[in-house]
Structure formats: structure tokens, C-alpha cells
Design goal:
Layout: H1 3-15, E1 23-25, H2 28-35, H3 39-51, E2 55-58, E3 68-71, H4 75-88, H5 92-102, H6 108-119, E4 121-127, E5 130-139, H7 154-163, E6 168-171, E7 176-179, E8 182-187, E9 193-198, H8 212-220, E10 235-242, E11 245-250, H9 257-260, H10 271-276, E12 290-295, E13 299-304, E14 317-322, E15 353-358, E16 361-367, H11 378-387, H12 390-397, E17 401-404, H13 423-433, E18 439-445, H14 449-460, E19 465-471, H15 479-484, E20 487-493, H16 497-506, H17 511-515, H18 518-532, H19 537-553, E21 557-559, E22 561-569, E23 573-574, E24 590-591
Parallel strand pairs: 5-14, 18-19, 18-20
Antiparallel strand pairs: 1-3, 2-3, 4-5, 6-7, 8-9, 9-11, 10-11, 12-13, 13-14, 15-22, 16-20, 16-21, 17-22, 23-24
Length: 597
């Protein structure tokens, strides 16, 4: 136990909330019980506390004379300094634990988070006598997995993209597939056979060169009911033609197959390590622009991959700090942590840069069609849709909520569409549905809780009773939770438009799929097959939009809101851009140092 930690323990026990400078009577026996050590060790601890200026100890001399202690340092000051010391060593979780233990009745917690806001961001540091550019960012959600096989959430997908690569990648600016691990590829006339040629000299982080066997292993390991298993269900055969060439055969034409291969779930892993090491996913090895360095309860650390086959990242390292969810109210959002730390208020007129974009996706509510309840009535579902005043929801909740949603994707019309509550028609539909006040249970998690609570308050005014069940990122995927909820409220983000949209219907464990009527799923599967057989994006979208339109018309999905992403940053920081997953592309960030005088 650190000296200042012992001081705080004694202060909390004997001095109360404000005992600084006061003479407090205490015995060696009491101190021994508090510190869980012998009276002899207590004396050593007291001597050290005195030497470091924490206390004045007045020993009682003779029978009947009591000992006294004077605490010299205010508890909140020392606790804040302890938290800062631990954070600087990377022990963020322990810092919060100390503040939780000793900070009752103080403002230390909010003060510490405010200090952390200045600790995060882009900094140049000396590491092993080498000048290194490090980016530290806080997150308020866990990295649930770094295994592409079990990928559900966009944050995990973003982290996987830092460590691994896919055979090909999608260039959004050029709207085309471009080489990644594969430098060339071709297909047969039917769209059922695809051949990929691997680059020479691509090295995994442990030093071995990428080979065709890694591709075969990476795709085959996805088979089954894993989150990414739907990608490989159409594959009937994967054959190694030579060390750097792989041929893949499909059961049906799929002209979107190269886009499938851009998805983080289809990242290529080293077969030798993944096969032999049960703990591989706790310290993963890929070919990506960054290498895994450390993963603790406090932080996730990556170092630059100097041998990256693409352009080397400008950053030398990235530290992702796991913050308690309940500190987000005191913190800047992660998008704002590339700002000048000396400026409290963002003032664009001083030359600051701002990126504002609409998140490619939406928040939504899916009805559980596998459970009995009012949601089985189309009239009831339609009534709820008509009663939700999305414009009012945006006005009252604010923050990143931007436009009412009429579908999965925002478009040019989103900014002008005004939602309104149609009470009279909704009242007729509720009466028609036979709804009699039964409780509707909305299940949600994390940042979506406020939206669910707003719906609860709003719908109560129309006689619809809603109970909100808040789960964690992990527990919401448990089968009993999915099956018992009347509806789920969450957000979808489309990193790869067509692929991610298909994923909603095809991925095992996906919320929308799990709540859909099995008969409807069969119809959806046919529409997807029709779409994949089309060689042009326009023709594919016509089939995919039929599915979305049916979900809207039958009110099987209640589309809620589109959200915005704001990034403010120091103009000396270059390469800042928000990718399709809603995150900063770490590889492209660099800092323009001021010229020396």
C-alpha cells in the first residue's frame, strides 16, 4: 500500500469529512486494526507519514495519557494527487477505485475526470530516449473482442482494423474495391468462382510472411454459428493453387463477394498462432498498421508496425483508456480530444478545424415477433410509430441527435423531413389492436438508455405503459434477454453499406434477425439472393430496399434518429478524418511541429 493511500485510509477513518489541522485522539491499537498490521509496524508507518509531511504524531506518555494525530493535508487534495499519480503510470482503474473508496462527500471524482481531459489527446513523449508521438483516447465502452469471428459492435470492429487486414478494402472516395493483402483478383463469368493473388513480403507482426494457408484457415474458422459465420455460408470450396494464390467457389452468384471480403469479420489471421495458442485473442497478431502491446482492465495499447506493407502510420503508439461509463457526463467526447488542451472553450474563429458528419446508420427499435404480446398486432405497432414525435425527441434530448429517421440510411432529404405525432389515427389503431394497458418492455444498453427513458415518458402520456430494462454490452446478447424483451432499442452503423445491410438479416445473433418472424426471414433470404446475383449496385439496391420498405410498412422496425459526429481539433494536427465506423483513422494522424526559432 502506498504511503498516501495509507494516509487517506487513516484520514477517512478518524478525521471524517474535514479533519485537516485538528488534533484527533487515537490509540496504537486502533491504528493497528485499521492498517491490519502490528503495533511495531504502525510506528514505522507513522514515522514515514511524519517524514513526508502528512501528519504530526503526538505520542501519549505514561498511564492515562492519550496519543494524538494531526492530519496536515486536505483529503481531497491528496486524493486527487494520488489519482493523477496512478493515471500517469497507466493505472486508471485503480485511480477510480481509490477515488470511489475515499472520495465520498468530495468533488474529487469530477475534478479528476476534468484533469484527465487534459491528459488525453496527441502528445510527443520520450520513450526509451526516443521521441514518440502518442495518441491517448478515452472510451466508455469495453473492447468485447479482438476476434473477427465474434464481431458484433463497431468499436471492436474499428480496433480489429488497426491490427489486421483483409484481402481487399473499399475506397469510399473512389467508390471501388482496391488491393490490400491481395494485389489482384479475378472471377469466372458466373460470379461463383473468385481467385485472389497475395502480395509478396507481407509480414505478420511476429515476423512470418503471409501465405495462402492463412487465408484458407481464416475463412474456414468462421464456419458455424459465429457472428461472422454468415459471410462464409455460401462458400463451397477454398483451394490453395500455390503459396500466394487462393481460389474460392460459391454455391450461388455473388457479385458483392469482394465487398464481403472488406469486412473486419473477414480479417486474415496467422494460422500457426491461432491454431496453437488458446490465449491468442488476448494478445492477437495480425498484419495491420499497429501491433498489439498490452491489454489490461485499464487500457489497450498499440505500437506502430514499422514493417507495414502499406504506408507506415505517423503515430508511434495509441493508448485506449477504459473509462467508467458514469464519468462521461464530466468528460469531453472522444471526438474533441485532439484540441489544444489550454483552451477550455472551442472557438473556431481562432483557426480551429471542425469536421461534422452524419453517422451512416440510425437508432431504431425492433419488435420481438417471436413472443406473444401487443406487438403482434400490426395496428398497435403502427400506432406506436405514429405517436413517437422524433423531432421533439431531438429537441429535448439534444447532444448528437440530428434528424428523424425514416430508414436505415440518412440521405439528402433527412434534414428537411419533419416528424409529427398523429394522435387521432394512433388512438383509433390502439382501440383496433385491443391494447389494454399491458406493459411493454424495452430492452437497451449503454448510451441508448436516455432514448428508452424518453420513450417511456412520452408514451405514458398516451396510455402506453413501458418498462425499460437496461443491460450491458454483453448481457443484452444473452438468449433469455433477447427472447423475453418485447422490443430492443439500439443503433446500427454501416461501415460497408450493402454488406452491413445484408448482415442485419443474415448474421446469427443480430438483433433484427433474432426478432424477425421466421416466415419473413425466408422471403428476405430470397431477396438477398436476388440482390447478390445483380452485377450493378443500382439493381442490388432495388432488391435490398424492398426489404427495408416492408419493414417500414409493416412497422416491424421503428426507425428513430440519425446522429451526428463532431470532431474539433488543433489545426497543427493533420490527417484527422472520421471513418465509416465513426472513429478517427489512427494511421493517418500526424502532428505538424512548430518551426524552431
Amino acid at each position: 500500500m502506498l504511503t498516501n493511500e495509507r494516509y487517506l485510509l487513516l484520514y477517512t477513518k478518524f478525521a471524517g469529512d474535514d479533519g485537516t489541522g485538528k488534533r484527533i485522539e487515537v490509540s496504537l491499537e486502533q491504528l493497528s486494526d485499521t492498517l491490519y498490521c502490528t503495533p511495531r509496524n504502525v510506528k514505522l508507518i507513522l514515522r514515514k507519514l511524519e517524514e513526508e509531511g502528512f501528519i504530526t504524531w503526538i505520542a501519549g506518555r505514561g498511564r492515562g495519557n492519550r496519543s494524538h494525530m494531526i492530519f496536515l493535508v486536505a483529503k481531497d487534495k491528496e486524493l486527487l494527487e494520488l489519482g493523477q499519480q496512478l493515471a500517469l503510470k497507466g493505472e486508471y482503474q485503480r485511480a477510480f477505485e481509490m477515488i470511489e473508496s475515499f472520495g465520498a462527500g468530495t468533488n474529487v471524482r469530477s475534478g479528476f475526470v476534468d484533469w484527465l481531459n487534459g491528459h488525453f489527446g496527441y502528445r510527443t513523449e520520450q520513450i526509451n530516449d526516443v521521441e514518440s508521438d502518442i495518441l491517448r483516447l478515452p472510451v466508455y465502452r469495453p473492447i468485447l473482442t479482438l476476434d473477427p469471428k465474434e464481431l458484433y459492435y463497431s468499436f471492436s470492429a474499428h480496433m480489429i482494423k488497426q491490427l489486421f487486414d483483409c484481402l481487399v478494402q473499399y475506397d469510399r472516395e473512389k467508390s471501388k474495391i482496391v488491393p490490400a493483402l491481395a494485389h489482384a483478383w479475378e472471377h469466372d463469368p458466373t460470379g461463383r468462382e473468385w481467385t485472389f493473388h497475395l502480395r509478396k513480403g507481407v509480414l505478420f507482426h511476429h515476423g512470418r510472411e503471409l501465405e495462402a494457408e492463412d487465408v484458407v484457415y481464416s475463412l474456414n474458422r468462421l464456419r458455424g454459428s459465429s457472428a461472422s459465420g454468415w459471410f462464409v455460408r455460401p462458400i463451397t470450396d477454398i483451394k490453395i493453387k500455390n503459396r500466394r494464390t487462393v481460389r474460392i467457389r460459391l454455391d450461388k452468384p455473388n457479385w458483392l463477394f469482394p465487398r464481403f471480403l472488406c469486412a473486419p469479420g473477414l480479417s486474415i489471421v496467422p494460422h500457426d498462432l491461432a491454431e496453437q495458442d488458446e490465449q491468442f485473442w488476448q494478445h492477437p497478431v495480425g498484419t495491420g498498421p499497429f501491433k498489439f502491446a498490452e491489454w489490461t482492465a485499464d487500457r489497450f495499447t498499440m505500437q506502430v508496425n514499422p514493417n507495414y506493407f502499406g504506408e507506415r502510420a505517423h503515430l508511434d503508439g495509441v493508448v485506449i483508456v477504459m473509462m467508467p461509463e458514469d464519468t462521461i457526463e464530466f468528460s469531453k467526447s472522444w471526438e474533441q480530444l485532439l484540441v489544444d488542451h489550454d483552451l477550455k472553450d472551442i472557438q473556431l474563429e481562432r483557426g480551429w478545424q471542425k469536421i461534422e458528419s452524419v453517422c451512416n446508420g440510425c437508432s431504431l427499435l425492433t419488435w420481438n415477433m417471436g413472443k406473444e404480446g401487443p406487438q403482434q398486432s400490426a395496428a398497435f405497432r403502427k400506432a406506436v410509430d405514429l405517436l413517437v414525435d422524433r423531432t421533439r425527441m431531438i429537441r429535448e434530448l439534444g447532444e448528437d441527435r440530428m434528424y428523424p429517421a425514416r430508414g436505415f440510411h440518412p440521405n439528402d432529404l433527412s434534414a428537411n423531413w419533419q416528424d409529427r405525432c398523429e394522435f387521432e389515427l394512433a388512438a383509433q389503431l390502439i382501440q383496433e389492436s385491443g391494447y389494454d394497458g399491458e406493459t411493454i418492455r424495452i430492452c437497451t444498453y449503454g448510451i441508448h438508455e436516455q432514448d428508452a427513458l424518453w420513450l417511456q415518458r412520452h408514451m405514458a402520456g398516451f396510455g402506453i405503459n413501458i418498462a425499460v430494462q437496461v443491460e450491458t454490452w454483453e448481457s443484452i446478447r444473452e438468449l433469455d434477454v433477447l427472447q423475453s424483451a418485447d422490443c430492443l432499442l439500439y443503433c446500427v452503423v454501416f461501415a460497408e453499406d450493402e454488406v452491413c445491410l445484408i448482415e442485419l438479416y443474415e448474421q446469427t445473433g443480430n438483433f433484427l434477425r433474432e426478432h424477425m418472424d421466421p416466415r419473413l426471414l425466408g422471403w428476405v433470404k430470397g431477396k438477398i439472393d436476388d440482390a447478390l446475383a445483380c452485377q450493378t449496385a443500382e439493381d442490388r439496391w432495388s432488391h435490398l430496399l424492398e426489404i427495408e420498405n416492408k419493414l417500414r410498412e409493416d412497422t416491424l422496425v421503428l426507425f428513430l434518429l440519425h446522429k451526428k459526429l463532431n470532431t474539433f481539433y488543433n489545426p497543427n494536427i493533420k490527417g484527422v478524418g472520421v471513418n465509416s465506423l465513426g472513429w478517427i483513422d489512427f494511421k493517418d494522424i500526424w502532428f505538424e511541429h512548430a518551426a524552431e526559432a
